[in-house]
């Protein structure tokens, strides 16, 4: 934990092994997602992290977070911690909504991408606010897919900060090759 005057922030450092390709699996863990997220905020509070601390929640499945994006998010922490702030990228592709329960999938309609963003991580909020949002979502059995959706659930409107598209989430084996490309590219830039 870092402390700077009255402001405290929780940062977690992790390492990922990109060579373990066999561990990448597709999963739909929405039902247990809110339970795990709520347990995480409870552990922070139990360990004495101040409830006014700013926390960053980052998917370990996103190893390509750039230092620039992290700094952008941290710079927004003073003005956005009470409502939340996330990294995101504007949707660039044409988005199609499939008809429910159709096999094979069929297009129901084309969605306007004008105001659509891809949510990334880290996602930032004050611990007390995030804990309240996750606890409420859990109690109501709400579908909470990320920290921002929990904040939305209690009526907040987290801010969107445009991050880099290279901050991909590894969910399929092919994503590993793309992540390796981005990480090697960054390493080459730092060395060269």
UniProtKB/TrEMBL annotation:
GO terms for biological process: isoprenoid biosynthetic process. GO terms for molecular function: 2-C-methyl-D-erythritol 4-phosphate cytidylyltransferase activity. The keyword Nucleotidyltransferase applies. Keywords: Nucleotidyltransferase, Transferase. Belongs to the IspD/TarI cytidylyltransferase family. IspD subfamily. PANTHER family: 2-C-METHYL-D-ERYTHRITOL 4-PHOSPHATE CYTIDYLYLTRANSFERASE, CHLOROPLASTIC (PTHR32125:SF4). This is Uncharacterized protein. It comes from Cyprideis torosa. The lineage of its organism: Eukaryota, Metazoa, Ecdysozoa, Arthropoda, Crustacea.
């Amino acid at each position: 934990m870092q402390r700077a005057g009255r402001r405290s922030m929780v940062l977690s450092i992790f390492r990922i092994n990109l060579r373990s390709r066999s561990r990448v699996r597709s999963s739909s863990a929405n039902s247990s997602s809110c339970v795990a997220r709520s347990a995480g905020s409870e552990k922070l509070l139990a360990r004495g992290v101040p409830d006014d601390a700013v926390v960053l929640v980052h998917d370990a499945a996103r190893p390509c977070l750039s230092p620039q994006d992290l700094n952008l998010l941290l710079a927004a922490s003073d003005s956005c911690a009470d409502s939340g702030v996330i990294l995101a990228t504007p949707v660039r592709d044409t988005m199609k909504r499939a008809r429910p329960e159709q096999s094979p999938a069929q297009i129901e309609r084309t969605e306007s991408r004008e105001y659509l963003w891809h949510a990334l991580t880290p996602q930032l909020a004050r611990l007390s606010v995030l804990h309240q949002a996750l606890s409420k979502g859990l109690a109501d059995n709400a579908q909470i897919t990320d920290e921002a959706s929990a904040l939305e659930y209690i009526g907040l409107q987290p801010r969107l900060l445009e991050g880099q598209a290279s901050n991909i989430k590894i969910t399929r084996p092919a994503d590993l090759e793309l992540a390796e490309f981005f990480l090697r590219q960054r390493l080459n830039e730092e060395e060269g």
